[in-house]
Amino acid sequence: MFRSFGPNEVLYIVSAVQWTLLLSAIAFAGGAVGGMAIALARVSTTKPLRYAALAFIRVFQGTPLLMQLFLVYFGLSIMGVGINLWVAAAAALTLHASAYLGEIWRGCIEAVPSGQSEASYALGLKYRDRMRYVVLPQAAKISVAPTVGFLVQLIKATSLTSIIGFVELTRAGQIINNATFQPLTVFSLVAAVYFILCWPLSMWARHLEGRFAVATTR
Domains along the chain? Predict the structure, then answer.
């Protein structure tokens, strides 16, 4: 027998936001570390590093995130490696974020005028110091808008972890829908919560992109 959709059901769905945000934060933090390593490898003067980073990006950008979740969770389980939902979801999303952030940041590094690096080279700065004090600080300003834009996509991508049973916002909606059998009401609420989470970040990314565009034309 189905139960009615009431305040308790709403509270259950809304309370799942904390797990969506926490998973997004973990994946973004891990992806930031991995993405920086990938970006630096992509612009490295060492060919093996460039090719390895490119292969990583091709694999994780060229396959669906859902497939990556399956491979991490079910693949390791089949091989006898016990893995819980948190670790599987965070690992798959971190690898996904590393590939995309790495490519975003690689583009931002290459967007810094080559004259900046050439001038620092003429001053005798080594590669590490040129990247640390000259190139990366400028690339960081360029990268803010697209990075925030990717964070919005990452928050929405956490919904796919519901397929392996991770209870975040979408999975909570599925659970309540199975109990109440009111999909329109339940998933309208889920969609509204995603909108409340993502819309301010989208507007912020657009604002930052506009500010950067104005700054570069001056």
Answer: 7-217 (1.10.3720.10)
Residue 65 has pLDDT above 70, yes or no: yes
pLDDT top residue among 39 and 114: 39
CB atoms near residue 216 (< 10 Å) = 9
Span 102-106, average pLDDT: 95
